Amino acid sequence: MIRDITIGQYYPTDSVIHKLDPRVKIVCTLLYLISLFLFKSVLGYVICTVFLVAVIRTSKVPFKFITKGLKPIILLLLITTIFNLFFTTTGNILVSVGFIKITEDGLRASVYMVLRLIYLIVGSSLMTLTTTPNELTDGIERLLRPLNKIKVPVHEIAMMMSIALRFIPLLLEETDKIMKAQIARGADLESGNIVQKAKSMIPILVPLFVSAFRRANDLAMAMEARCYRGGDGRTKMKPLVYKNRDYMAYVVTAVYLVILIGVGRFVPFKIWIF
Which of 28, 67, 177, 254 is deepest in the core (most CB within 10 A)? Predict the structure, then answer.
């Protein structure tokens, strides 16, 4: 389960998506995530699905590798489905068994919410899988550069976000090692009630925090030894420059948004209750 989390990982391969400017990928990802809440019909989800599948195929990242990142949120998806399905009381009743009632609005809300969560996770994971932490830092810094005029430490914010994102797979790997070590010593991490399971996590969390602080201290000392002094006056080995493929990506995203809003909001289409 720990190794199934793909957020923060980078999947190296030769694709058009990998070669895009990180600013393009950040902006287009944000626009895609926002677009998930701009339509109200089944056609909108069809357009989102087609666009997302096309981007995944273009990125050359294996579909199984992307869907593997959904395993850790299965519990969240189940909780979301249950709350929307059984606690939404408006609309016509479809199933009624005792005090349990499933309505049209509840079923519609649960399906739409689960799909949106899946698309949110897959879309954001695809950006990190196709962008290195260094590129992500440069992209965030360039996008937030106008905030320098009001004395916002843009470089430091971008650096912290990049380091935090880079630490995710390292800490997950460390957690996996600690869990295996505790199981080898006879620790029982699976059985028992919630309280017992929480107590069994203490031997994992303590060494994990110690390891995290040690890694952070080593990184700080390494940056200080290399005379790191922030973003003022620093030059880039690979400066970010827009190319034709980057402008084409903006155009494709804009066309997607226009079609999605036009079809998803203004074209009447209905399948059963959806």
Answer: 28
Single-letter amino acid, residue 55: V
Q: pTM for this one? A: 0.80
DSSP 69: G
Enter the tokens of residue 221. 């000392």
Q: Which two tokens stand for residue 81?
A: 């489905």
Looking at residue 90, its pLDDT comes to 77
Task: Quote the tokens at residue 61.
Answer: 């990242």
Per-residue pLDDT reduced to its tens digit, 153-202: 888 888 887 788 778 778 888 888 888 888 888 777 777 777 777 777 88
Rounded distance between C-alpha atoms, residue 236 and residue 211, angstroms: 31
Distance CA 250, CA 18 (A): 15
3 state DSSP class of 201: coil
User: Rounded to the nearest 10 degrees, what angle do helices 154-184 and 133-143 cross at?
Assistant: 150
Tokens representing 158 are 């971008």
* 264 neighbors 44 (Cβ within 8 angstroms): yes
Instruction: Identify the pLDDT of residue 63.
Output: 85
CB 270 within 8 A of CB 48: no
Which pairs from 222-230 meet CB under 8 Å and 24+ separation?
A: 230/153, 230/155, 230/156
What's the length of the chain?
Answer: 274
3-state SS assignment for residue 231: coil
Asked if 154 and 231 count as a contact pair (C-beta separation under 8 A), the reply is yes
